[in-house]
Specification:
mainly alpha; 2 strands; Putative membrane protein; two-stranded antiparallel ribbon; about 375 residues; transmembrane; 11 helices
Amino acid sequence: MFDGRNTLNLPIVIWAGSALLAILAYAVGTHSITFSPVPGLDKQVGLLWAPSWTVDRIVFVALFLFIVSETLHSWKTEWRAKFADDGGEQSRDASWLRRMDDAAPMCWLILGACLLVVFLGQWLGVYWLVLAKGVTGNAMIDWILVAIERPDVVTVSEAVIVSGLANLYSCFVYWAFFSGLVLLHAMAGAFQYAAGSCDADRAALQVTNMFDIGGKLMGAIFCCTVFGILSASSIKLNAVYLISDGENILAWLLGDALAALGATHNEWGWLERTAWPYVTSFFVIFVTCFVFFACQARIRSGLKKVNSLAGNIEPGERSRAEGLMKQAQVSWQKMSGVVGLLTVNFALLGTFTGFSMLLLLSISVGVASCIWWAGSAETRVGEI
């Protein structure tokens, strides 16, 4: 599904799943619904107000999968041919197929883990168990578990069915996301191998192509990392809101910013609830950042090899290759800085008054960096 002429295949599946989920929520009445966790508070927990089910899937995950598909398509049809080995196209295809065969068991393992943990574990261990008991206890109330608090709107039986379908959809989303990370790592490994396999003559002739492809590949991995971290942040943000005393998520974020600026003295507080999505969001951001730095190390290694070989042929090539290497290193530092900012924002979500301002800054910087990379990828060698 990642590889094909239409790189919108997976995003379309994600959007279709989100649309079907929204229709289900509307049918049972939980698309926009409130309950009273404490006297005097009508808390909005509807699906349409949950960033982890809306913005995350429709925007961040869809963009992530689109970039992975575009990058894979470019790698197979365009980039590999620019540093062809002496074996020609048949040899390159065989090498890539072997790498894909090596990655296949990991994708199957990811599918099994998603079915076991996300679908069965989260559905049976969290939703079905709480709905069967009919008592929420200190569990976080979302658009599904609200059936216990609002039986006048949605029945427990309806909530069980919807929760099963929602978690099955989540299982597919996480499988596609983590499989995309596996493909990015495979492409970075293939680039490292191709760059390291160059002899001195070819390295001198193809130094520009190598740095151009390495920069584009690293830029795509960077943008995927940005959207991966924003996806994890939206999961955690929704959980933080659901265990807070905010009435709706927009008013809650606005109130937090106003309180930090001194425009209001009404600071928000916490409800006595447990947020299990904290674990999910941490795992997503950890794996995403790990893959980012692993890919960066592989691409850096490949370009250093090309740089050293090119410099040994002609004196003029040495200074040119060193200039491209310095340019690439500056780009990597910028990327790492943005990833660091987004990670700090993730860690500090809901920990202090005014966190919403850091959230806005982080989203702006991350999205602007990806837009800049997309606009300059064709004109800058090694830049984001």
